[in-house]
Amino acid sequence: xxxxxxKSEFLRVMFERGYVHQCSDFAGxxxxxxxxxxxxxxxxxxxxxxxxxxxxxxxxxxxxxxxxGNTPITLMGGGTTQIxxxxxxxxxxxxxxxxxIEINKAGIREVFAKVLRFGEAPGEAxxxxxxxxxxxxxxxxxxxxxxxxxxxxxxxTMESVRQRFxxxxxxxxxxxxxxxxxxxxxxxxxxxxxxxxQMGGSDQWGNIVTGIDLGRRMGTHQxxxxxxxxxxxxxxxxxxxxxxxxxxxxxDMLSPxxxxxxxxxxxxxxxxxxxxxxxFLPLDEIARLxxxxxxxxxxxxxxxxxxxxxxxxxREAAEAAAETARRTFEEGRAASDLPGIDVPAAELAxxxxxxxxxxxxxxxxxxxxARRQVQAGGLRVNDRVVTDPxxxxxxxxxxxxxxxxxxxxxxxxxxxxxx
RNA sequence: GGGGGAAUGUCCCGAGCGGCAAAGGGGGCGGACUGUAAAUCCGCUGGCUAUGCCUUCGUAGGUUCGAGUCCUACUUCCCCCA
Length: 419
Prior knowledge:
Elements (H helix, E strand, L loop, with lengths): L8 H9 L4 E2 L2 H9 L4 E6 L11 H12 L3 E6 L21 H15 L13 E4 L1 H4 L4 H7 L6 H6 L1 H8 L6 H4 L1 H16 L3 E5 L3 H14 L5 E5 L12 E2 L2 E2 L9 H9 L6 H8 L4 H8 L6 H17 L1 H16 L9 E4 L1 H6 L1 E2 H7 L6 H10 L2 E3 L2 E2 L6 E2 L10 E5 L3 E7 L1
Parallel strand pairs: 2-3, 2-5, 3-4, 5-6, 9-15
Antiparallel strand pairs: 1-6, 7-8, 10-13, 11-12, 11-14, 14-15
Helix pairs in contact: 10-11, 12-15, 12-16, 13-14, 13-15, 15-16, 18-19
The chain binds one RNA strand through α15, α16 and α19.
């Protein structure tokens, strides 16, 4: 794989930027890409109201695919989500109701229009839902047409599920069918839309090549697999976890400001790699930024944060987030567009306990935690460390900007606005 | 079908001779040092109207002044024999 030098622009970008983990046939895929004839899909199950940055690598792959003249398909898993992918899972996830799936699907759809151009013409992206065909399958015909091509023996030896069997953990027949459905999706997309490539995370390798196999047995054109590596941070942690949980892509789940902050806090050693994976900046520019040493690397992190945020939330929101961060961290002022909560003026008039205020702002989970943080010196009001847990906030604490700034640690700030 | 073991702080692992808000890790959070980084060191890591009160150890009962700890039944999981 390392000595392969691609002729097509698409594969060249994939290699240069670090998107490639495994491919079923580099040369074959390269030939298709050179003719700009790739029609590639990535499937997204509707397990939450928004995708998180775990899905971002594959979204970027689709974006590059389109930018290099090929055709992307985003497949919503309206059908497969009703089953749940067992790959590399310790236990079955709980079944989602059809209503939940619909809500999630609606939330997830939004993100793709930001990096892909949709339409009907060649080279324009399609959005398809596998519920379209999966919900209409008839059991016996499906078993006879598709099921007969699957070897249970072989499926049980697949890496993605082997642990489940080895540990003798429950593996339901429902889950067992996921692989059949995903494989069938690939065939269906090949037939309906001329799809010839499925991309995804490295954990999807088994499911994807099984689909290629099914295609061959069911007489489609040649299908291909291309997977990207699972992204971890330089210090080995799974990427995309914050105190609040996952790093969501939708603004209603995680504000652009917080999203910007996530990227801003990237480890030094990851800056170059993340710039290549998560921005469209040219490689020479990235090389220059990644070469910055010592404190100067912070400039590169700001570029990363702003570019990555602009991709998901728009240039304007990204610049605003950058500016808020600059005022907050570099000037130590209370930028007015920090996250904030409204508190009735009447309540402030009678006095609001600091502990309760921090809980209300969502910075700490309980009064008890707030109390402990006071002892640790982790809470500040208008940049002054809180030392007295009995302290009461009143309207007099509002600064000239008209708000009270609560800080938890060095990085989390919330404004209390009297209304 | 028979025999033996296990379920602990709702993030995970895990100690716990009847006095336990319950050892120790990991993870997470805060503080110090830095550069909003990493590494390192220190602290915290049930709730509350808080020198006290309330709720936690698979579920439901029982013994006891007092139960995570003992007894009974049930649930789930693991191991051995058949």
